[in-house]
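User: quick one, fold this
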Amino acid sequence: MSTQTKREYFVILRERYRAAKGLSKSERSKIIDEGVKNTGLHRKSVIRALTLARNVDGGPPRLGRPKRYSKSVVSGF
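Assistant:
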């Protein structure tokens, strides 16, 4: 499965997972198991892909400490 195909698949699966938040833990677990079976990823990787919010630019989520200085300050050096 290509990376683009996995992204498209997780968009659909993420909607189902978020809709299942009100359901039982076993229902959410079934969705995760389906993602593991179809993508070949580890369980924890599938959970991260379903729960992490993407960056507004479409890139990976920004992790770690927030930036301390703006680009205008840094470009002055």
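User: anything notable?
Assistant: The CA atoms of residues 2 and 39 lie 9 Å apart.
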